[in-house]
Amino acid sequence: MADFTTLPDLASRAFGGGVVLASDEFFAAADHLVLPSAPGHAPRTFDHRGQVYDGWETRRRRSPGHDFAVVRLGTPGVIHGVEVDTAFFTGNYPPYASLDAVALPGYPGPEQLAAADWVALVSRRELGGDRANRFAVTDRRRFTHVRLNIYPDGGVARLRVHGVVVPDPALLPKIFDVAAAEYGGRVVDCSDMFYGHPQRMLMPGLAQNMGDGWETSRRRDDANDWVLVQLAAPARLRFADLDTSHFKGNAPGWAALTGVTADGDHVELLPRTALRPDTAHRFPLVKAPQVGRVRLDIFPDGGMARLRLHGRADRGHLWARMRQCVEP
Fold first, then answer.
1. Can you tell me the distance from the alpha carbon of 175 to that of 68, in angstroms, rounded to the nearest whole number?
2. What are 23-43's pLDDT values in tens digits?
3. What domains lie within the chain, and their CATH numbers?
């Protein structure tokens, strides 16, 4: 089985995911569940409700039932696996958990969520404390919300919902960043990722620092580094943003872009072009046929904060992908 944790976290706050409903959050807010950062812990740090935890923690149940939290996915998609991380929760983690999901249009409120026809993706499973509990998902339908159930109560640091992004074509403009992870763009291969994974280049927003991007080790040969991106849909590209922000003494000297068509032909989109350190570059691209993948070459090595590829996507492809994922 492939490692589903290499897929994007659809619930992440980085994509706009959020907790919209929780049965209880007496000791620690459920909002922590979707933070993109790894959970931390400061022992013997207390506030008026007890030890401070970087996670969601409910009070001790003295009545029947169980606790739950509903998460609106930052981007809808097909879920391949979930991670219920109980990091630093030792004597207060839930002994069991399950996960349900639903696909709802728009922005449903608590009443709509309560009345929804939820689908069980992960049956009630045993959890371990202070560890990442991982469960594969086989249902290949598209979902917009998930509900984490914990039995009967306790604390969970993070909920990761790994999967493949499937956006709603009706909500996409005619021209958009078809490399963006939030729309389904993803890295499928690269030459080196010693200091940073290239998937970070496709994340929303500006890079926060040099660690929030792709950076390779220093080359000691005559070759160059590269990354191959699968676009959200085949597209005719018009502009490219190559952002070297925060990379000052380690920005690439030059870069080039090559598109790959459905027939496997390679077309030049941006010839080898000089880059400046710590600069957000925008380049018009050579008019070319529709491409489904793009290769970014950097010369000879270095770091790139963000890669944006703006173009007109194949709407038929987007709608076909959507239809494929809404039926059982």
1. 39
2. 999 999 999 999 999 999 888
3. 4-165 (2.60.120.260), 171-315 (2.60.120.260)
